[in-house]
Amino acid sequence: MTIPFNIAFQHMPTPAFVARIESGEIVAANEHLENLYLNVGAARQATWAELVNDDKACLRDTISLVKEGRIEKVTAQLQVGDRIIAGEISFSILDDAYTLGYISHTEHLDFSAAENTLLKFALTESSAGLWMWEIESDTISCSQSIASLLGCTLEATPHNANAWHDLIHRDDAEKLIRTVQEHIDHQQKYYEAEYRIRRANDEYIWVRERGRTYSQSKDGKVLKLIGFVEDISHQKALEEHLRSQATFDELTGLLNRGAALTHFTKQLGLARRQYTPLTMAKIDLDARGLLADMPLENRNTAIHTTARYIYKKIREADILARVAHDKLLLLLPNTSLKDAQKLINEFLMPREEEKKVLEFSDSSHLNLCVGLATFPEDGETIEELANSANSAVERGRTEGISVSIAK
């Protein structure tokens, strides 16, 4: 060893050694390693196999796994006098012939310190919590931040895999278990999963779990995982809102134009294949121009109330969408023109209590006009039917009638 290296080696804060890769002979030990044995009146082991208390252990094979990137450190049962100490051994390969090994004692993990070290690997979110899972003993250790995430005391956090899985939403548990098991089986370095977990108040929150292999055996078997979970409920809520915006009209909660076209096209295809009737209704919510002069907030309230009133009147199979500011489009599958007229008349003649609800929101059934078009007489495509229904409703507005049929 060179003089600078020897000085650094002796002053390393953890027990360390230099060994021949091919034979496993330990050719040098720093003061910390020597003292580990001197303190118990025992002689230091001379080889890698003796150090890790395994006659079959081959340092050359372990270093090969390190070079391949399959392991970063190994867990070993170190024989120190009469004691067996669990330790993590990490390696820095010096050259083709020698490797540096340094030992950390890991029987106890101090999470209060770990959360401020590289063990958390980018654990920067305030809502995240650190955990460690010792696989063979099935022991999970959680940080205080996980207890806060789950809304419980540190003692009440899950201490084994089954207890953790019991907190996971049943629709997400199988996928998480499969992801982690594949990580272990294939000796991977990292994995990531998103799932819902139950807090102490029985409320489910969305979390993202990121885990990595923390230690492995001499043959690469994964022994410990370490990772963190972070609360992503707000992110999930935003994603759901964006999906909803892509499908539903924000003001009325009805389908928007794009989503309606998909549903309309599917129903038209069924009507064509099954030779069943189909009627489209274009509904003008402001046939008499009563909404135009209202303040925006009042106008939106009237549109929302009228749209929800109509929605409650239609059948489960019918499809209602908002396609313009004050225009709705209603598709009535398996419905003849005669039956469609009956259905339309039901919401054009509300009961007294329904009238009061509409009037309270500055809307009125008298402000509605409906244009009807049927397949295939008035059109063989969605666009043709919509144009026919639109022409009918415009004619109805002009003539001052509530229901107008395409010609």
How many β-strand stretches? 15
Q: Please describe the biggest sheet, giving its number of strands, its sense, and whether it closes into a barrel.
A: 5 strands, antiparallel
Average pLDDT number:
86
CATH class of the largest domain: Alpha Beta
Q: What is the number of domains? A: 3
Which strands sit side by side, in order, in the main sheet?
A: 2-1-5-4-3
The shape, in one word, is elongated
Number of helices: 14
Question: Which range does the strand content fall in?
Answer: 25-35%
Low-confidence stretches: 112-127
CATH architecture of the largest domain: 2-Layer Sandwich
Find the structural class using helix and strand composition: alpha+beta
Question: Percent of residues in helical segments?
Answer: 25-40%
Rg from alpha-carbon coordinates: 36 Å
Task: Assign the CATH superfamily of the largest domain.
Answer: Reverse transcriptase/Diguanylate cyclase domain
CATH topology call of the largest domain: Alpha-Beta Plaits
Distance between the termini: 99 Å
Q: What's the order of the H and E elements?
A: HEEHHHEEEHEEHHHEEEHHEHEEHHEHE
